[in-house]
């Protein structure tokens, strides 16, 4: 069994990184692996925005990722500094504030880091 950490740095408005991440989490769990945490950095912190203005025909992939992480008890963390630079002070439900130091310390408990 492998313990993964997931780092998302890509612009999540394209939705692809979030969909890929969600699929990876689901497949990993089905295969008996563990996900220690998901960490959003750089432009990926935009997923933590409380009320994104999405087109009516576009699914809210950030909310779907949060729901999955809540259901599976996987911490969904976003970088405090990156969020502050982008004006995100009150995240949507399911997202927790963290720093790079916490991210680094959590990596000690993982076998592999997967980046989207």
Please supply descriptive tags for the structure shown above.
alpha/beta, globular, 116 residues, single chain
Task: Provide the fold topology.
Elements: E1 3-8, H1 16-30, E2 34-40, H2 61-72, E3 76-79, H3 80-85, E4 96-98, H4 100-107, E5 112-115
Parallel strand pairs: 1-2, 1-5, 2-3, 3-4
Task: Write structural notes for this entry.
Strand 3, helix 3 and strand 4 form a beta-alpha-beta unit. The chain is of the alpha/beta class and 116 residues long. It is built from four helices and five strands; from the N terminus they run βαβαβαβαβ. The protein has a five-stranded parallel sheet with strand order 4-3-2-1-5, with helices on both faces. The protein has helices at 16-30, 61-72, 80-85, 100-107; strands spanning 3-8, 34-40, 76-79, 96-98, 112-115.
What does this entry show, briefly?
This protein has 116 residues and is of the alpha/beta class. 35% of the residues lie in helices and 21% in strands.
Structural class: alpha/beta
Rounded to an integer, what's the Rg over CA atoms?
Answer: 13 Å
- Uncertain segments are none
Shape: globular
Kindly estimate the percentage of residues that lie in beta strands according to DSSP: 15-25%
Number of helices: 4
Mean pLDDT level: 92
Q: How many strands?
A: 5
Which sequence of strands runs across the widest sheet?
4-3-2-1-5
């Amino acid at each position: 069994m492998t313990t993964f950490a997931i780092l998302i740095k890509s612009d999540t408005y394209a939705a692809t990184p979030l969909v890929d991440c969600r699929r990876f989490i689901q497949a990993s769990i089905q295969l008996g692996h563990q996900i220690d945490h998901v960490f959003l950095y750089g432009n990926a912190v935009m997923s933590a925005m409380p009320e994104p203005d999405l087109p009516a025909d576009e699914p809210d992939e950030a909310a779907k990722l949060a729901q999955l992480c809540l259901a599976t008890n996987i911490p969904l963390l976003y970088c405090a500094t990156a969020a502050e630079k982008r004006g995100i002070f009150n995240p949507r439900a399911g997202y927790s504030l963290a720093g790079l130091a916490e991210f680094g310390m959590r990596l000690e408990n993982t076998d592999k880091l997967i980046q989207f």
